[in-house]
Amino acid sequence: MATIEDVAKLAGLSRTTVSRVINNQPYVTEEKKIKINEAMKELGYVPNSSARRLRSQRTETIAVLLPRVTNPFFGQLIESLEQKASDYGYQVIVCQTHDKKYKELDYLQLLKTKQVDGVIMASLTNEWMDIEPFLDSGPIVLCNEYMEKQDVTMIHIDHKQAAYDAALHLIEQGCRRIAYASGGRETYISKQRKTGFCDALREHNMWLSKELEINEVLDVGDGQTTFHYLKVHQPEVDGIFTGSDEVAAGVVYAASKEGWRIPEDLAVVGFDNQMLSLLMVPAITTIEQPVEQIASKTIQVLVDQIKNKLSTPTQRFVYPYELIKRKSTDCNTVKKTAR
Amino acid sequence: MATIEDVAKLAGLSRTTVSRVINNQPYVTEEKKIKINEAMKELGYVPNSSARRLRSQRTETIAVLLPRVTNPFFGQLIESLEQKASDYGYQVIVCQTHDKKYKELDYLQLLKTKQVDGVIMASLTNEWMDIEPFLDSGPIVLCNEYMEKQDVTMIHIDHKQAAYDAALHLIEQGCRRIAYASGGRETYISKQRKTGFCDALREHNMWLSKELEINEVLDVGDGQTTFHYLKVHQPEVDGIFTGSDEVAAGVVYAASKEGWRIPEDLAVVGFDNQMLSLLMVPAITTIEQPVEQIASKTIQVLVDQIKNKLSTPTQRFVYPYELIKRKSTDCNTVKKTAR
DNA sequence: CTACATTTTGAAATCGTTTTCATAACAAAT
DNA sequence: ATTTGTTATGAAAACGATTTCAAAATGTAG
Fold first, then answer.
1. What's the whole-model pTM score?
2. Residues B147 and B237 grouped into a single domain
3. pLDDT tens across B215-246, in order?
4. Does the C-beta of A49 come within 7 A of strand D?
5. Residues 305-334 of B with CB under 7 A from strand D
């Protein structure tokens, strides 16, 4: 492999001048610039990125931590993040944590070892206490995930209010025994949603009973399992709020197969407005997040923090969401006409 | 940030010895090993990865090129690839080409600039002629994509035969005017599928007319568009082969909305056996690829080539697939009972 | 023509590791 | 006591770029 030295020799100039051309800095005559470019082409020269990273202490790379790309919401998110990052000249490296604490910490090492200039956390399973020390090694921004503390910038929607709205909608459709299926164990986001959900119930003199709360429900399969559990143990259930469209789809699928009518026998709400929620029969009511805006702001903030190493103030950006009402909750006036 | 020098000083030893401990090489007494580990912990030392990469000429990183992670097939693929890679101690960096030639070439630069030790191409839009030169910079393996030339290892299923089987199935179900919706423009894979599809038709005295061939059909939206096109311009169509479950889902969705019965009025076949194909009403007949096996072999081969830099022989691994028959093609005995 | 600023160039230091090579220490064998 | 072999350690070179600093060349104003 050709090095910068080889190029310099062939062009009859110094490494320094070649470096100037590579990074198109000023103070090189047009004539020499041409000579150097020719030499580079002739040798098929490409700068070694480990060397430049080592010397310049910049990697132009951002790590994005997320649970898994097979979850369509995160697929969409990473898509937008990458797009925006490349607009700013940054590469993105995708880090799937699978909701494992140790993986999250492993990936944060990328910041310490200087493999990345900054980190976007769209996955947050560790206690903040354990994450905080990494801030010494470089900027971290929370995307979608959030919490109460303020020592880091966060970009997200109001999950509590969103869940509140969803629950209210179910109540307005006549549901009286509403189940709650949630994904992550104890992330702040989950707690927020649950709080919002319970608030709505309480305001209508209802509450979430232990038996109607199901945890660790993440994908289509879990959704099916959840329905079967409810069918056997809580047959009077008439509505369900789920943490994702995939879970909602699983519920709808299993319920339909068992002869339950949706929404008459069971109204279903999903989350994230994935294509899937539209395609299901019946189409699923869901909450849409402004993914592109969130991604855009996240990158903007992080890049800013990378460049102005000095303390940029940490902020919180809360974006609006939308409850999209579809057939899966369209109970008209009648509800529960006997199964 | 603490460097190896700092650790050495604190422990009262040399850089070399510290390096030996870091890379757990032999010839360090237990006593000093302990002393060094303590020093590292005290300083919160982590080796700078640019420096080690530069010196050791290894990155322990693999680039995976694929069209987009939002396509569930590739989501699944990257999931498995990353899993396997980490078993071998390799990181994966995900590179979305969006089927753009220039992006594919840009990402291949990672190999030249020594940012990665090897590349997995699950996206191949450029001519092989333009890719080949990169082989000088490091190993490349084709995963899912393939071609006739033999200078690189390929892992895939027999797409020609798979498409043949799918077409044959449609024919056996009584379809006589079968449409063909394909994604990528001119990848070898597309050509193979089309050949297989046409072979089956020809063997039954049919052929693919220009009007029934639709290209550039990639996602759910395209599937809907395709159906509307067919409805207007080719109303006699009674079956359709699509390049992905997403497209198939789009067709089913649009068709159902327009009052067509599936499969009686239109039989539909997808590809990849994504969850979506099972969830649709009716469930969609599709072809399942052994993604995990493919991923596993791909990593195994690539890591081997990275380690034995000398010429490892290039090979071709062809895995079995399975045609999964579901409602979307279950025409029983009757077909086309008048619309 | 001198003085001063600006443009152009290169030698050498530097980034933080790993690797090479030389040497010291120690044990076992003659 | 000397040789031989193995284990243990460190000084210095190397990886391939960018950055610093000094100096040369050129331009410009007085």
1. 0.90
2. no
3. 989 899 999 999 999 999 999 999 999 989 99
4. no
5. none
**B119: β partners:** B63, B140
Average pLDDT over residues A193-222: 92
Nearest CB partner across the interface for B115, out of A49, A54, A279: A49
Quick check: is B337 in a domain?
A: no
The domain that contains A167 carries what CATH number? Answer: 3.40.50.2300
A53 assigned to some structural domain = no
> Cβ separation of B78 and A59 shorter than 8 Å?
no
Taking each continuous run of H as one helix and of E as one strand, the counts in chain A are 13, 12
DSSP code of B286?
Answer: E
Q: Which residue has the tokens 């019946």?
A: A282
Asked if the structure places residue A170 within a domain, the reply is: yes
Q: Average pLDDT in the A206-220 region?
A: 90
Regarding whether B209 and B303 lie in a shared domain, the answer is no
Q: Is the pLDDT of residue A214 over 80?
A: yes
Of B70, B137, B279, the CB nearest to A75: B70
Q: In angstroms, rounded to a whole number, what is the distance separating the alpha carbons of residues A339 and B247?
A: 35
Q: Strand D: which bases are under 7 Å from protein Cβ?
A: 7-20
Number of structural domains, chain B? Answer: 3
Per the CB < 8 Å rule, is B94 touching A69? Answer: yes
Looking at the fold, whether B209 and B226 belong to one and the same domain comes out as yes
Beta partners for A318?
A156
Q: Which residue is nearest to nucleotide C18 (CA to C1')?
A: B55
Q: Residue B200's domain spans which residues? A: 159-289+324-329
Amino acid B8 CA to nucleotide D27 C1' distance, rounded Å: 53
Tokens of A246: 């995939």
Bond into B139 cis (ω within 30) = no
| Measured CA B90 to C1' C25 distance, in angstroms | 39
